Amino acid sequence: MRVSRPQKAILWTVFLLMSWVVAPMIGAENAYWAYQPVTIPDIPSIKDQEWAKNPIDTFILNQLEKNGLFPAIPATKQALIRRVYYDLTGLPPSPEEVVSFVNDTDPMAYSKLLDRLLASEQYGIKWGRHW
Fold it and tell me: Domain map of the chain by residue range?
């Protein structure tokens, strides 16, 4: 039986694709990180227990401490509102919005601000320009 040139190309393509799929399952390729089982690492110890709000913060602070570094101080509420407005809408906040945010004692004030800006028309306009 004679195999035509297009059939050879198809067979060769199938062979290559199969080898790419099967090769990682054989031998040393199993050492690749993506083929390892998922494990939960131990949470490292840190000096400043108050800074870490969640386990991810603990990993970050552990590496900072190993390198003799420390986290930046938290931004003021005035700086936060300006950063968020410029990042999400490209516009500065009005003075009234700054005063309102700074005086808001609700622990969820920042989250509410983010939700409001993400739902704003200006957010869509700014990010629509990237397309």
Answer: 5-35, 43-72, 77-128
CA 14 remoteness from chain centre: 36
pTM of the model: 0.60
In this predicted structure, what is the pLDDT of residue 24? 62
Looking at residue 130, its pLDDT comes to 84
Could you give the C-alpha distances from 21 to 13, 14, 15, 34, 36, in angstroms and in order?
12, 11, 10, 14, 16
Distance between CA 14 and CA 9 in Å, rounded?
A: 9
Which stretches in the chain have pLDDT values below 70? Answer: 1, 3, 23-30
Q: Pick the closest to residue 78 from 53, 104, 52 (CA basis).
A: 104
CA distances from 3 to 6, 9, 54, 127 (A): 8, 10, 63, 54
Question: Which two three-digit tokens encode residue 42?
Answer: 């131990």
Q: What is the pLDDT of residue 118?
A: 97
Q: How many DSSP H helices and E strands does the chain contain?
A: 6, 0
